[in-house]
Amino acid sequence: MFPTLRLTFLGTDPHCRYLVLLDIVPMDNKRYRYAYHRSSWLVAGKADPPSPARLYLHPDAPFTGDQLRKQVVSFEKVKLTNNEMDKQGHIVLNSMHRYQPRIHLVVRRDPNTANNPVTDLELERYRTFVFPETIFTAVTAYQNQLITKLKIDSNPFAKGFRDSSRLTDLER
After folding, report:
1. What is the CATH number of domain 6-141?
2. Hey, where are the domains in the chain?
3. Model-level pTM?
4. pLDDT tens by residue, 8-21
């Protein structure tokens, strides 16, 4: 996922273990299209049926409360797909739909359960964080050439798309 979600946490208990999970939920029941002449997104009809929700566990979990206060937690490895048959654990989204990422901080007081998987969030002690500025429209192709260029120039996973003639000697 680009741009990457990066977080820091305050107020965690240094003696507890925590899991940090990500899910991405639909914002509404609409499908969108991009209007080039207006340079804006317009409602294009009713949403496709949502894919089953998936929780993405941060690969470095569990964290101690102390670790969460001292380091940035980055979701740079999360993968998004529109393939409903995905078996790799990627988060499945419908293209041309709006989504909101959510971060769930799950408390594991008992060290013996720190590595147990989360199968039902409602059975856990957790807190959810939502940031309105992270709402996005899922696309399979960027609708704006400037955004395409920004991604190619900024996303470390887009190296293969970069024109080597534009690179400085240091970057080569």
Report:
1. 2.60.40.820
2. 6-141, 142-171
3. 0.81
4. 999 999 989 999 99
